């Protein structure tokens, strides 16, 4: 691999130089007022990115997986019932975590490449007359398959069933890159991480709680210590942490959210859509298809690209790294060996995307796939030149 080349994995993403320098800072006393000058603006900025007026924002030294655990342990008790769809690797892993915590999970299977079946959720919730289901889990953007699910539709399903279940959403590979409306969609807990749309190294679980979710913690009995939001709340009120915080990452988060908000969230989302659509045009130019079953499901942060039957897609990722020093994502779980993934989120521009498309073409040609050099690049160039909205400055 080469440090000079951008990465095209779905995270961690490329780090802008200004953010890298913000993370690389001298040691400070994290119990001094200076720490509060990083912490509280970062919390307020994240609240804006989530499009919430009231969410309580918590940062844990962890990853999105720790954010999942924060959501579960602060709101539920052993034996509580959870409803979730399994339509990819990351929804599968959150379900697995629930089961390991002794929760009763009703799993709705869905094909990998499909979105969350909100209509089936409505049927199940309507039949739950005793309101045994406490939480509905939803993965907004399934990173393994490049599928974006309709969270507003999930909320409509809950409301149509007149069910009081809370809605927890994994937005790890969507928040900060694609539109996320915590208040409008009635999301009770939103989970994300530092290493994707926020353009930081891995190391922070970023979690937004509604008032309803916080109140659920008053009766929840799942064990929690490190991820206890009650301890966080008390410490935040004193400009501190219940233990040693990841100071550099929080300083970087303050800057990265400043940058996203300065660019304008609508511009950030338009940029991601434009870059993603250029990649999709390239895939079409190659004569290949996406794992996502239909255009309404296409992710604007990662494209999972199917290769011909009998071809091991992992060979593309391995050769790209060895021969050209560039990183793409492998297929995971049920689509391992069947797809390779191009991540196009975070600090990314049209020109950067073109370099990834060109590298993928070279690799596929090297491996004997019927891909003509320049075909995908030309299709993406044509879109970026004429089919895209007016260019905005990238973060």
Write a short abstract of this structure.
This protein has 395 residues and is an alpha/beta fold.
Description:
- The chain is of the alpha/beta class and about 400 residues long.
- It has 2 domains: about 15-260, Type I PLP-dependent aspartate aminotransferase-like (Major domain) (Aspartate Aminotransferase, domain 2, 3-Layer(aba) Sandwich); about 265-385, Aspartate Aminotransferase, domain 1.
- About 40% of the residues lie in helices and about 15% in strands.
- It is built from 13 helices and 13 strands.
- It has helices spanning about 15-25, 35-50, 65-75, 90-100, 120-125, 150-160, 210-215, 230-235, 245-265, 265-285, 315-325, 350-365, 375-385, and strands at about 55-60, 80-85, 105-110, 135-140, 140, 145-150, 165-170, 190-195, 205-210, 290, 300-305, 330, 340-345.
- A 7-stranded mixed sheet has the order 1-9-8-7-4-2-3, sandwiched between helices. Strands 10-11-13-12 form a 4-stranded antiparallel sheet.
- α5 (about 120-125) packs parallel to α6, α10 runs antiparallel to α13 and α12 packs antiparallel against α13.
- The chain starts with 16 loop residues before the first helix and ends in an 8-residue tail after the last helix.
- Mean pLDDT is about 95; it is low at about 390-395.
């Amino acid at each position: 691999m080469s440090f000079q080349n951008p990465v095209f994995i779905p995270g961690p993403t490329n780090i802008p130089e200004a953010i890298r320098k913000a993370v690389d800072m001298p040691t400070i006393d994290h119990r001094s007022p200076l720490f509060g000058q990083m912490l509280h603006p970062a919390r307020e900025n994240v609240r804006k990115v989530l499009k919430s007026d009231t969410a309580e924002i918590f940062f844990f030294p962890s990853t999105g997986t720790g954010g999942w655990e924060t959501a579960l342990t602060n709101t539920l008790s052993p034996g509580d019932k959870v409803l979730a769809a399994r339509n990819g690797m990351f929804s599968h892993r959150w379900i697995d975590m629930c089961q390991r915590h002794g929760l009763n999970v009703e799993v709705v299977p869905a094909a990998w490449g499909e979105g969350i079946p909100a209509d089936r959720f409505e049927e199940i919730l309507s039949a739950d007359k005793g309101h045994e289901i406490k939480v509905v889990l939803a993965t907004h953007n399934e990173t393994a398959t490049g599928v974006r699910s309709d969270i507003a539709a999930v909320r409509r399903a809950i409301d149509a069933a007149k069910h009081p279940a809370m809605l927890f959403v994994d937005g790890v590979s969507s928040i900060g890159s694609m539109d996320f409306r915590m208040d409008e969609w009635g999301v009770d807990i939103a989970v994300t991480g530092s290493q994707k749309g926020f353009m930081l190294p891995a190391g922070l679980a970023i979690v937004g709680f509604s008032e309803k979710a916080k109140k659920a913690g008053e009766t929840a009995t799942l064990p929690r210590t490190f991820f206890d939001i009650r301890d966080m709340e008390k410490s935040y009120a004193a400009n501190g942490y219940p233990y040693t915080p990841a100071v550099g990452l929080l300083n970087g988060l303050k800057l990265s959210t400043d940058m996203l908000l300065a660019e304008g969230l609508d511009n950030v989302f338009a940029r991601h859509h434009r870059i993603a659509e250029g990649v999709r045009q390239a895939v079409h130019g190659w004569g290949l298809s996406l794992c996502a079953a239909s255009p309404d499901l296409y992710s604007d942060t990662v494209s999972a690209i199917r290769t011909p039957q009998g071809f091991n897609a992992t060979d593309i990722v391995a050769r790209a790294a060895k021969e050209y020093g560039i990183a793409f994502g492998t297929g995971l779980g049920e689509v391992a060996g069947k797809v390779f993934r191009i991540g196009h989120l975070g600090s990314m521009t049209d020109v950067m995307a073109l370099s990834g498309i060109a590298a993928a073409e070279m690799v596929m040609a090297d491996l004997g796939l019927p891909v003509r050099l320049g075909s995908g690049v030309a299709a993406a160039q044509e879109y970026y030149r004429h089919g895209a909205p007016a260019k905005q400055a990238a973060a």
